[in-house]
Amino acid sequence: MVTPMPRFAANLSMLYQELPFLDRFAAAAQDGFEAVEYLFPYAFERGDIAARLKTHGLSQVLFNAPPGHWDAGERGLACLPGREAEFRTAMGLALEYAAALDCPRVHAMAGLAPAGVPRETLRATYIENLRWAAQQAARQNVDVLIEPINTRDIPGFFLNRQDDAHAVLAEVGEPNLKVQMDLYHCQIVEGDVTMKLRQYLPTGRVGHLQVAGVPQRHEPDIGELNHAYIFSVLDELGYEGWVGCEYRPQAGAKPGGTSDGLGWLQPYLRKSGSTP
């Protein structure tokens, strides 16, 4: 029997919310995950996170650069004119954490499009910021990722479509700038998920995948997408990267809520001991 190829990373910002953040690493490892991702690590000391990763044999595969004033509603800095210095400072901090956690990918959130600012101005800022970030990240063999996000979850987000994201990669021209392809967002904005996987995965410019059920963002086996089929397509296409589980467990933050909903994951669990 051929071992299923997809390898899944627990998103610790959404999963295991019944536990304090630093306790979620142990829970993920106990449930069979070999890797983790999350939104932001910056509220915690690098050494504390690194210790959890080492103790539980987990790989850190992704986190976001600081997004600006998150609690005030900001969702990234990369497209915002006049915030270039803040963007560079944020990326510098993200790369420090990436080095400490041996993390090979950092997501630079595009941000919300400000009212009254021409889109071409935002795009020019976005391109220049991403080019600078990718060049800095390349010095430590880190990929910078950009993610198209649907405007139902984040109204006004600057980057929404896969084709636009890949056009940005072409314009920036840095090989370590890649797309974070979240199939939940892709289905909501444009659909035709399988054909987009067939179109973009062979290019080598998709640096990370994420999944969740559509439309409620629960477990992948809940909703309108046939994730078992999608995972078989990943096998067929030879995808060797990680698939981030960025969903809200249907049981919410109840004790055992996350673990109780992991039946869908069981066929894919393994202990390979290798990471891309």
What features would you highlight for this structure?
single chain; 276 residues; alpha/beta; TIM Barrel; 8 strands; globular
Can you offer a commentary on this structure?
- The chain has 276 residues and is an alpha/beta fold.
- The protein has one domain: Divalent-metal-dependent TIM barrel enzymes (TIM Barrel).
- Helices cover 35% and strands 13% of the residues.
- The chain has nine helices and eight strands.
- It has helices at residues 24-30, 46-56, 84-101, 119-138, 162-172, 183-189, 193-200, 227-237, 257-260, and strands at residues 7-11, 35-37, 59-64, 105-107, 143-146, 177-182, 206-211, 242-245.
- It has an eight-stranded parallel barrel with strand order 1-2-3-4-5-6-7-8, surrounded by five helices.
- Strand 1 (7-11), helix 1 (24-30) and strand 2 (35-37) form a beta-alpha-beta unit.
- Helix 3 runs parallel beside helix 4 (119-138).
- It is globular and about 45 Å long.
- Residues 271-276 have low confidence and may be disordered.
Pick out the low-confidence regions: 271-276
The CATH topology label is TIM Barrel
Give the radius of gyration: 18 Å
* Whole-number count of domains: 1
State the oligomer: single chain
Strand order of the largest sheet: 1-2-3-4-5-6-7-8
Rounded mean pLDDT is: 94
List how many beta strands DSSP finds: 8
Work out the helix count: 9
Distance between the termini: 23 Å
- Residues in helix, %: 25-40%
Shape: globular
Q: By CATH's scheme, which homologous superfamily applies?
A: Divalent-metal-dependent TIM barrel enzymes
